[in-house]
Amino acid sequence: MASIFERIGGSEAVAAVVDDFYDRVLADPLLSGFFANTDMGKLKAHQRSFVAAALGGPQTYRGKTMDEAHAGLGIQAEHFDAVVGHLVESLRKHKVAEDVIASIADALAPLKAEIVPSEVSA
Ligand code: HEM
User: Fold this and answer.
1) Low-confidence residues of the chain, pLDDT below 50?
2) Residue nearest to atom 15 of ligand 1 (CA)
3) Is residue 70 part of an annotated ligand binding site?
4) Which residues of this UniProt protein bind heme (predicted)?
5) Residue 101: CB partners within 8 Å, gap ≥ 6?
6) What is the per-residue pLDDT for 58?
7) What whole-number distance in Å separates Cα of residue 54 and Cα of residue 27?
8) Is residue 116 within 8 Å of residue 80, measured between CB atoms?
9) Can you identify the CATH homologous superfamily of domain 4-113?
10) Ligand 1: which residue has its CA nearest to atom 30?
11) Of 2, 28, 33, whose CA–CA distance to 87 is shortest?
12) Can you spell out the DSSP letters for 31-78?
């Protein structure tokens, strides 16, 4: 059974999706502010890491946990959903099949709880 990575079309197709996704996130006024102080190299790495998480690829990232990396940034559910929405649009643009897109969205869903702080009432 082909991996999601293979079903998208391998590294070239994935690179094209990452570029398109990156442009969409930066062009979205809801999201661009989060990355205002992030340099471009780091931002590219961020989008690759996001796509890698979506593809369930080998976990090569050895940095902070997702909740440590995003603590204090004020990321809300709507921001997480908007980022996932841009990825879905990029995948559609590159003619990825809808069932593959659905698997990708499923793979990202569990990260939402780590990245969006829960609303704990004081
Ligand atoms: C599956 C979802 C995501 C993954 C896998 C992911 C991954 C990462 C990683 C690996 C880092 C770097 C941590 C470090 O410096 O050690 C990071 C930082 C960051 N992430 Fe995410 N992220 C995700 C979702 C989001 C979302 C939804 C937003 C905002 C809308 C966001 C905004 C940021 C920002 C602003 C930083 C700090 C960048 C900087 O250092 O300037 N991330 N993320």
Assistant:
1) none
2) 69
3) yes
4) 46, 70
5) 88, 91, 92
6) 54
7) 21
8) yes
9) Globins (1.10.490.10)
10) 79
11) 28
12) TGGGGTTS-HHHHHHHHHHHHHHHHT------SS-HHHHHTTS---HH
Query: Structure tokens of 56?
Result: 């369930």
What is the residue type of 10? G
Residue 20 near residue 90, CB atoms below 8 Å: yes
Whole-prediction pTM: 0.87
Distance, CA 1 to ligand 1 centroid (Å)?
Answer: 31
Residue 11's SS3 state is helix
Ligand 1 mean position to 81 CA, how many Å?
A: 14
Give me the residue label for tokens 């570029």: 19
Helix (H) or strand (E) holding 83: helix 77-93
